[in-house]
Structure formats: C-alpha cells, structure tokens
C-alpha cells in the first residue's frame, strides 16, 4: 500500500503537471500559425483594392499609389496591420514616388493562408512585378514589425537600394521565446523569420526605427539584429513610442522622409550570392 501511495503521490506531483505541460506544448505547436498571423483582423472587400498580383493560382491584392511616378517604394506591413491606412502617410511623405503595398496571404483581400515560405515567395514575386513596371529604377523597401522579417529576406535576394526597418527583430522564434520563457517555443516555431541570417551580407543603406516602449519586440532582439549588419545602420530611437504608436510620432516621419526622400538615388545593393537561392 505504501508503494502504491508513493507512486500515486509521485504522479500527482510530477506526472499530472508534465501531462499538462506537454498538452500545452502540443497545442501551441499544432496551432502556432493561428497564434502568429492575425490576418482575419485586416480583412476587407476586394473592391477596396486597386492592385492584383497573380501567384500560384491565388490573387494577392493591395494598392499602387502614384504608380506612374518613378523610384518605387515597397511596403510590407506588420502583423494585424491594416496597410491601407498607411497609404495616406506614405503618399504625403513621398509625393513624387510610386508606392506599392501588398497584403499578405489571408490578409486584406488576398487569397490563401500565410506561412513564412509563402510570404517570402510572394514578396519576391511582388518585387519582380514592380521591377518590371519600373525597369532600371532603384527600389526601396520598408518593413514594419513582421514585415521587417519579410523585407529582410527580400533585401537578401534582390537588389534593394535602401531598406527601412520599423520595430525589427533578430528572429521571430527568439522573440517568441522571450515572451514564453517557460516553454520551448524557440524550438517549436516553424516560421522563424531569421532576419539576422538574411541581413548578414546586405550592403545597402539601412534605417532602423525603434520604439523606446516596445512591449512586443524586446529591445535586446533589436540590439542583436543591429550587430548582424555588414555595415552599421542608421538608428533612430523614439523614446516615448510603443510598438503600435511609433508611426504616429513626428520624429518617425522626419526620419523616414530624410532617409528615403532624397533625390540622390542610391545604387541598388546586390543580393548576396550565398543567399541568392529562392
């Protein structure tokens, strides 16, 4: 009887918590993309868009602002960001340039389901489509939060003249681990968005806009990204901004306009030969 009781006590102390812990890990692993991507919060009618990119039988939709203007800017938005709300700001900041914004799969009015591989492939096809529209012109790229991971991949694979990263991170897996330190999420995450890897050889001009009160991307993860660049980026820290409010700060607009608004078009930085595989 003593052995039975001790075994029952052992199961109560260790076995049940282990089962609960394992169940939580299994749930997070199975549902991780539902927990990473919040496209449902951004859905809208296709009639509200004016740009369509056909890829893999899907229609990816977005907006082309001033498409007849030169020197295009590509914008990749954050998770749960309604990128159509960014159009007015970018048009005001860059009245003489074309601006393209594409909603990820499952976001806005775009078809499909998001994943890292799908977003990366779509972003490269998006870049190629814009380059065909603007042959021989330098292309600048802006990536915000999740979009910084997408933009970093594009910059490693295609010539990007200037790269602006808003609240960027070293990798999504590392950020997730910081938010859930008691769970092995860094090991479980499949869509890793490893910007440190993609940007290690990028030779173009980089602007990093960071929020002093960012509760989504801990400062250490932006710091790690800064050490990965082949040459030091320009860093603008907005001390009073948080992850969601950084775009409304006057310093944000001034920094972005100064970095991307000059008439001296920077020559495109060539994509790394090492990371040139799709």
TrEMBL record:
UniProt key word Hydrolase: yes
Molecular-function annotations in GO: hydrolase activity
Domain AB hydrolase-1, residue spans: 72-168
Keyword entries, A-Z: Hydrolase
One Pfam family in the UniProt entry: Abhydrolase_1
Name this polypeptide is given: Alpha/beta hydrolase
């Amino acid at each position: 009887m003593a052995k039975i009781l001790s075994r029952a006590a052992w199961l109560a102390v260790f076995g049940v918590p282990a089962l609960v812990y394992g169940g939580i890990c299994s749930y997070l692993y199975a549902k991780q993309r539902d927990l990473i991507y919040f496209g449902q919060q951004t859905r809208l009618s296709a009639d509200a868009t004016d740009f369509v990119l056909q890829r893999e039988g899907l229609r990816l939709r977005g907006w082309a602002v001033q498409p007849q203007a030169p020197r295009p800017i590509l914008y990749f938005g954050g998770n749960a960001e309604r990128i159509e709300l960014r159009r007015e700001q970018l048009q005001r900041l860059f009245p003489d340039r074309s601006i393209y914004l594409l909603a990820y799969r499952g976001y806005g009015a775009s078809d499909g389901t998001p994943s890292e591989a799908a977003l990366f492939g779509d972003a490269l096809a998006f870049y190629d489509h814009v380059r065909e529209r603007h042959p021989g012109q330098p292309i600048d790229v802006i990536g915000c939060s999740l979009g910084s991971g997408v933009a970093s991949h594009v910059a490693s694979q295609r010539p990007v003249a200037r790269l602006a990263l808003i609240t960027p991170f070293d990798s999504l897996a590392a950020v997730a681990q910081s938010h859930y330190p008691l769970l092995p999420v860094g090991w479980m995450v499949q869509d890793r968005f490893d910007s440190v890897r993609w940007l290690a050889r990028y030779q173009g001009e980089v602007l990093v806009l960071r929020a002093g009160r960012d509760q989504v991307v801990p400062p250490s993860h932006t710091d790690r990204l800064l050490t990965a660049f082949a040459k030091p980026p320009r860093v603008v820290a907005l001390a009073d901004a948080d992850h969601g409010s950084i775009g409304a700060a006057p310093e944000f607009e001034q920094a972005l306009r100064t970095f991307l608004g000059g008439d001296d078009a920077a020559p495109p930085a060539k994509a790394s030969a090492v990371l040139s595989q799709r």
